[in-house]
Write a structure and sequence with these properties.
The protein is mainly alpha-helical. The protein has two domains: 1-61, Winged helix-like DNA-binding domain superfamily/Winged helix DNA-binding domain (Arc Repressor Mutant, subunit A); 63-95. Helices cover 66% and strands 11% of the residues. It has three helices and two strands; from the N terminus they run αββαα. It has helices at residues 4-16, 38-60, 64-90, and strands at 20-24, 32-36. A hairpin with a 7-residue loop joins strand 1 (20-24) and strand 2.
Length: 95
């Protein structure tokens, strides 16, 4: 839901701090490719590396059938939330 100007400003700030770089797409010169820098990769590893590795162990402890059930639940919950959000947005303002 961000405007193109807001996204550009966000990327400008991230680039100024050394978190991302941007370059023109080789396939379509109108597009800009945003890439994480080594600094971002190091910070991601520091803060999320352990949890990612431990999370992989947790996922590996479930069977494919169990994971399919979890996925079905998550998708059903997301569908329900989307339907309710659409319902709320469609209601006239009662204020």
């Amino acid at each position: 839901g961000l405007t193109p100007a807001a996204v550009t400003a966000l990327i400008d700030r991230l680039e100024a701090r050394g978190y991302v770089t941007r370059a023109r797409s080789l396939e379509d010169r109108r597009k800009v490719v945003i890439e994480a820098t080594e600094l971002t990769r190091e910070l991601s590893e520091r803060y999320y590396g352990t949890i990612a590795r431990e999370g992989e162990k947790v996922v590996a402890s479930f069977s494919n059938a169990e994971l399919a059930t979890v996925l079905r639940f998550i998708n059903a919950a997301l569908d329900l939330q989307s339907e309710q959000l659409a319902r709320i947005k469609a209601e006239p303002n009662k204020a």
